[in-house]
Design goal:
There is one protein chain. With 219 residues, this protein is mainly β. The protein has no helices and 18 strands. Strand 5 and strand 6 form a beta hairpin. The radius of gyration is 19 Å and the shape is elongated.
């Protein structure tokens, strides 16, 4: 484990994301130089075992304000920086499949994501060019995209890569996002599904589930 509740590891000026680790207990971190009162997404990605991350309201780590679900790939939560622009974070390795084995991970802090696009005005993305997308947290609208210029009826596997979230992806061939072609949910590094472009060479893509960041790619 890294840091303690009394002396957490400061990751403010270290490489982002920070390569962290935890045993079967908790690792403690602080992240400063943030905007006081602003919301930030805290994520653990590239996990080697099951873990979760929690945000605390004070430097004694006595009161948790948010905690992510346990996952063995990626897990995240949104927390609020305190009046000094600091987040108090703890990676919890107590739920690893092999008791006490711990986990390695990348921990990252970014401004809270926002949903983008809409059914009426999806974001246009480019074929064969990764698009850095985002979706706001639970209880908000999904993000919507459109890719054009495909060969009509050609097949493509649409994927979400480098996720900081649990995600789902749905592909449609209709601009009103009603005629579903395929659906994929997270469970590995690349969430995706395969579908064929419509007769105009278009695809319509909806990203849902929890909130976070990702790279959307249509080959």
């Amino acid at each position: 484990a890294e840091g303690t509740a009394g002396a957490p590891k400061d990751i403010t000026n270290l490489t982002r994301p920070y390569a962290g680790q935890v045993d079967g207990t908790k690792s403690y971190y602080t992240r400063g130089s943030l905007t006081p009162g602003a919301s930030y997404q805290v994520s653990l990605s590239n996990l080697t075992e099951t873990a979760r991350v929690g945000v605390y309201s004070d430097n004694s780590f006595s009161s948790s304000t948010a905690s992510s679900t346990a996952d063995n790939n990626v897990t995240s939560i949104v927390g609020t920086a305190d009046g000094s622009g600091i987040l108090y974070l703890a990676a919890d390795g107590s739920q690893t499949y092999s008791t006490g084995s711990g986990a390695f991970f990348d921990i990252d802090v970014r401004p809270a994501p926002q949903s983008e696009g809409s059914i009426a005005a999806p974001v246009a993305i480019t074929l064969q060019t990764p698009y850095a997308g985002q979706k706001a947290y639970n209880g908000t609208s999904d993000s919507y995209y459109k890719v054009s210029g495909l060969v009509p009826f050609s097949s493509h596997r649409v994927t979400l890569r480098n996720r900081s979230m649990t995600a789902s992806i749905t592909v449609y061939d209709s601009p009103d996002f009603t005629h579903q072609l395929c659906y994929g949910s997270s469970g590995d590094y690349r969430t995706g599904c395969a579908a064929a472009a419509n007769y105009n060479g278009d695809m319509y893509i909806e990203v849902g589930d929890t909130g976070g960041f990702y790279s959307l790619y249509v080959p």
